[in-house]
Amino acid sequence: MAAAAELKWKNTALLVIDMQVVREHDPLGRDVELFRRHLYGSADKPKPVSKGTVGAELVDGLFIEEGDYKLVKTRFSSFFNTHLHSYLQGLGINKLIITGVQTPNCIRQTAFDAVALDYHTVTVIVDATAAATPDIHIANVIDMKNIGVATPTLEEWCN
What we know:
The protein is of the alpha/beta class.
């Protein structure tokens, strides 16, 4: 059993999007998408995900341990303007397991970029990802399936 589990994780990375892969923006919003810049314009308003704010912290119960890689991103995709791809290549990673939030934004964009970057297997664990509504979640899961992303439940993936 241990050998099977070890083989399953060989050359595989688990991405926990917007929980371990976190968004941290410049407090002035200079690296924020255009549609979000209004959230950063006022000096007296709290900035949603600036370094040091509650929005940029890890969720309760999730910790980055020694040896873990914390990726800071400023866009939906974990690959856009980050060192993630070169970091994973350096480790010999060619299979990705993607979990986290939000399915139509960060999960989907990361999965699409992973496919474009030719990762051998891209898997989104459908009950370990979420969206604002079940309908939005399901529609995006279908889109990812259509480009070859595997979409099992956690139980299915573990078996």
